[in-house]
Amino acid sequence: MLEIRGVRAGYGAVAVLHGIDLDAAAGQVSCIMGRNGAGKTTLLRAVMGLLPVTAGSVRLGGAPIHHLPAHEVPRRGIGYVPQGRRLFGPLTVAENLEIGLMARRRGAAVRDRVLGLFPRLAERLGQAAATLSGGEQQMLAIGRALCLEPAVLLLDEPTEGLQPSMVALIRDTVARLRAEGVAVVLVEQRVETALAVADRLAFVTGGRVAETVAARGLAADAPQFAAHVGV
Questions:
Q1: Which of 19, 57, 91, 142 could make an SS bond with 95 (beta carbons 3.0 to 4.6 A apart)?
Q2: What is the pLDDT of residues 118-152, one digit of tens each?
């Protein structure tokens, strides 16, 4: 269980999160939605130690992690796929995966499992990451994070700019991870994708969670989407 309580964070003197609360349970997908600038990416960066938490707490399995340096957070079992993927472009697919394996000292069996999820990557192990298509790069970014064997996976708009077949693949991957007991935190702007994979939807406005609702039974024209996501 990832527990976020009263977290405040921002960029220098600019406060973005104003006491945000969120839970992510094992075997569930928690989807964070909100307009641009609401604080969604800032929240994930704060969880990963990339931004200092100035107040509140982040706990993983009951243990506080908000005080840890950024390189220690993945070692505790949190995988992160940032918006824009942030791959090591000149390195090969195999080398990018190896970096993920090194974080928690995982071996060939874990790599083979990841390649089983994304067979196309197995065909491109010697290819530079920068030369992959956008969808293939997203596969690699997710695969690298899964090389940690994470208990929690944070995904920041993983379907952005992708063709429908790739969006469907990522949705299927998220559903499979949920079935395996991973706690998935998904930042997503596509309403149809959120409704297809999420167990809960947390709507973020002004650096706070304005409302959390169950995804089951919610329709695409529900008032929450117009209030917190629509332009």
A1: 91
A2: 999 999 999 999 999 988 999 999 999 999 999 99
Strand-strand pairing, 29-33 and 152-156: unpaired
Characterize 110-146 residue by residue with b for buried, 16 or more Cβ atoms within 10 angstroms of its Cβ, and e for exposed: bbeebbebbeebeebeeebbeebeebbbbbbbbbbbb
Domain-embedded: residue 41 = no
Q: Give every residue of the chain whose pLDDT is below 50, as ranges.
A: none
Q: How many CB atoms lie within 10 A of CB 200?
A: 18
Radius of gyration of the chain (CA): 17
pTM: 0.92
Q: List all residues 6 or more positions away from 43 whose beta carbon is below 8 Å from its beta carbon.
A: 4, 7, 9, 17, 20, 22, 32, 204
Backbone angles phi, psi at 96, to 5 degrees: -65, -40
Range of the domain at 106: 86-150
Question: Is 187 a member of any domain?
Answer: no
In a domain, 93, yes or no: yes
Answer whether residue 120 is part of any domain: yes
